[in-house]
Amino acid sequence: MLSFNESVDTRIPSSPPPIAPLSEDSVRPLWSVMIPAYNCSAYLKEAIVSVLAQDMGTAVMQIEVVDDASTDIEVAALVASLGAGRVQYFRQPVNVGSVRNFETCINRARGHFVHLLHGDDRVLPGFYEKITELFTLSPEAGAVFTHYASINEAGEQLDVPPLEAATAGILTDWLPRIALYQRTQYAAMVVRREAYEKLGSFYGTNYGEDWEMWVRIARYYPVGYVPEVLAEYRRQPDSITSEKARTGLLIPDLMQVILRIQQHLPPAERKSIFAQTRKHHAYSNITEAYRLLQQYKDWSLARWQMRQSLRLSQHPSVYYELSKFYLKFYLNKLGINLSKF
């Protein structure tokens, strides 16, 4: 078994924090749209407006911004100006970190369906309607997600991953598929509150914690899918993912997540999926190493990333991809741009 050092952050729980059930006599909306926010003022307005455009009314939908003690703007004022009393606001007394803030979101959620929409992401028209329809048709589902697109800082679409299914419904063989690698994003995923109550909240790391959660849900519940791009996930150079990649913490955290995911799999499938997911992320890490090299011009960091790729997997194809990396880098230094190499 591979040995990786786990990054330590006292604000990150070491086991799934419990989510307390609501009292049986509570008056509850169908939806809780919880918007965790921290220093994302450039995008928060877009997130809130995208939800308000699909507002189902106070009896059906709770909308709340949960501010992790932002310092960039007065978030309460922004929420008040946009929501006009419709959007609730809660501020953490101190910065608790993303994972604990998600936990607060879930505990404050009163609805049956909980959507954690990050303050820099957004939803497209039809998201809540389509999710509601599939939950109604599939009451056994613990979660439902839509297809999504990645967008840049300007809100322009970068790419759309392959579809998970051609038609809406419960996904087949979802547990081994989602265990291979992260196939969706927070913005696209909606979870029944009762599933969080049974399984607990996010834990372990602040990178890949969502992937482990989606695997955990798939272990115990059917998961539904809508094959329409109805959510947009924003990539940013100053995101947690980018920062961990730049500082060399991404792969150790990733490996911890992969090891945790193993416990959710049938014993007979663990070895095969472990090897496949290591190889997949070794490829991804080589791509990330090249991006870091281009962005930061830090050859030592890129070399470290590549060494981590070999710790993930020593499959011959990984060595082949590494050789392409070196060749592409040196050709580019000579002014030869092989973008399709």
From TrEMBL:
One Pfam family it belongs to: Glycos_transf_2
InterPro entries tied to this protein: Glyco_trans_2-like, Glycosyltransf_2, Nucleotide-diphossugar_trans
SUPFAM superfamilies: Nucleotide-diphospho-sugar transferases
Residue ranges of every copy of the Glycosyltransferase 2-like domain listed in the record: 32-155
Name of the protein this chain belongs to: Glycosyltransferase
